[in-house]
Amino acid sequence: MTEKALSTRSIDLLKTLVEMHIRDGQPVGSKTLHASSGLAVSPATIRNIMSDLEGRGYLESPHTSSGRVPTAAGYRFFVDSLLQIQPLDPQAIIALREELNPNRSSGELVQAASSVLAQITTQAGIVTVPKAEARQLRQVEFLPLSDNRVLVILVVNEREVQNRIIQLPRALSEDQLKAAADLVNQRFSGTDLGDVKSHLVREMEEARSRIDEAMAAAMQMAQEALGPDNEDDGYVVAGEGHLLDSASPENFAKLRELFDAFERKRDLLDLLERSSQAEGVQIFIGEEAGFEVFGDYSVITAPYGHGSQPLGVLGVIGPTRMAYERVIPMVDVTARMLTAALSK
């Protein structure tokens, strides 16, 4: 339906009802709507208009009561035609600037963007992990910990520092760890991190007859420590607890399905990949996302990049009754500020 297909009164009542449902989370009855709308019409007229909106697919009755809630189509009409975007909260902008510090590594920035989005919007924040074109090893250091564990400190590219802890099958002395680090730094500094493991395997095969047991163990440790990270998660999510806070008892089963989708990753990655190919903010309400599991939820996304080069997508996931007027501009500005931080 287009806006012209509805009367001004119907549009006003739909807007009021959607705003009330977002605020209170309860079905809205005709008496409550009549008292809040400010329209000089009778309660009977209000009921007739609500019935008409329900017939058009904008409202539905979730219970046997006379109260109604917006459908996905009702929310879509509201977002496209009636929504009044709110000015950005100055404190939220300050928080974004503090968290999205250009001096942080790309991995830290992605984590920070997800967390700050969740905190500011009180929804679940999600950011896809950028695929780095090159991750060159600059330096490695191995520090002994207790129980045969080793702290691996990697310096990647110009300034990105990564820490990993690995478990060794046998203890190595501090001198052995230093010798292994010196060997790796001398031979592989400047090498793409993803290629280091294959180089180490080849070196071990070629030198097997010439190295002692301790150095073989050290090189084996370096192979494990410098190999590719665990399979990439694809995205990071923060603030899932906000979804739990906003869920009603009857929606717990659907929320569990959504959390399962977070774990499977495939459906959500497909949606985010589609979003990355579009410009600006994208809004998916309910099953517009293309998956039944999102039926009671909305996903708002925006792409981010490095300068003009797209790197990924960030956004929020929350119930369809989220405060779109606050969330939409916050997703937009977060994507812009993440792009600016990565570009510096």
From TrEMBL:
* Alphabetically ordered keywords of this record: Coiled coil, Repressor, Stress response, Transcription, Transcription regulation
A biological process (GO) of this protein is: negative regulation of DNA-templated transcription
Q: Highest taxon of the source?
A: Bacteria
Coiled-coil residues are 197-224
Residue ranges of domain Heat-inducible transcription repressor HrcA C-terminal in the record: 108-328
Gene Ontology molecular function, alphabetical: DNA binding
PANTHER family named among the record's database cross-references:
HEAT-INDUCIBLE TRANSCRIPTION REPRESSOR HRCA
State the similarity comment. Answer: Belongs to the HrcA family.
Purpose of the protein: Negative regulator of class I heat shock genes (grpE-dnaK-dnaJ and groELS operons). Prevents heat-shock induction of these operons.
Name under which the protein is recorded = Heat-inducible transcription repressor HrcA
User: Which species does this protein come from?
Assistant: Luminiphilus syltensis NOR5-1B
